[in-house]
Design a protein that fits this description.
about 160 residues, two-stranded antiparallel ribbon
């Protein structure tokens, strides 16, 4: 078993036994006027429920933060696991006339991790949608073997 898989399994076990976090995204959102994915409120705490492709279920806290490197991106952060993903709105329009930062959908990856982020999650990726100014649902791909896929749904939770 690869070390990264072992570490993720340990994080999953901790998450499931404490009902806190899996797969663990450490995130963020930027409060920007408009109706795009960038309206995600800064530091909004979420409770996210997860279901994996082999029916493993979990619940975790997630936070969103604005990106300090790019105002058109935000970070999803999972405090218990230390996972962090960098996110941006998906492009809309056409190839010849792309419209950036206008979609309610977003894509995230763990590449270019922030200082202090858990490197075990650096190959993970996620997608999701925003309704109003809140992250609502999406999918998550575990970047290490056996490459599990998760679906998630989130609701604001001030106790997270």
């Amino acid at each position: 078993m690869k070390l990264a898989t072992l570490v993720k399994l340990c994080a999953l076990a901790a998450c499931c036994t404490t009902s806190l976090l899996v797969p663990a995204l450490d995130g963020g959102g930027s409060a920007i006027a408009g109706t795009t994915c960038l309206v995600v409120e800064d530091h909004t705490p979420y409770r996210c429920d997860w279901k994996r492709d082999d029916n493993v279920v979990a619940s975790t806290c997630m936070r969103v933060h604005p990106s300090t490197l790019n105002p058109n991106q935000f970070l999803m952060h999972f405090p218990v696991s230390g996972a962090a993903l960098r996110c941006a709105c998906t492009a809309a329009g056409s190839f010849n006339n792309p419209k950036y930062n206008t979609s309610k959908a977003f894509l995230c990856n763990g590449g270019g991790l922030q200082p202090g982020a858990n490197p075990v999650f650096e190959h993970d990726s996620a997608s999701g949608t925003v309704s109003g100014a809140k992250i609502t649902k999406g999918s998550y791909l575990d970047g290490f073997a056996p490459f599990h896929e998760w679906v998630y749904q989130c609701k604001p939770d001030p106790n997270c």
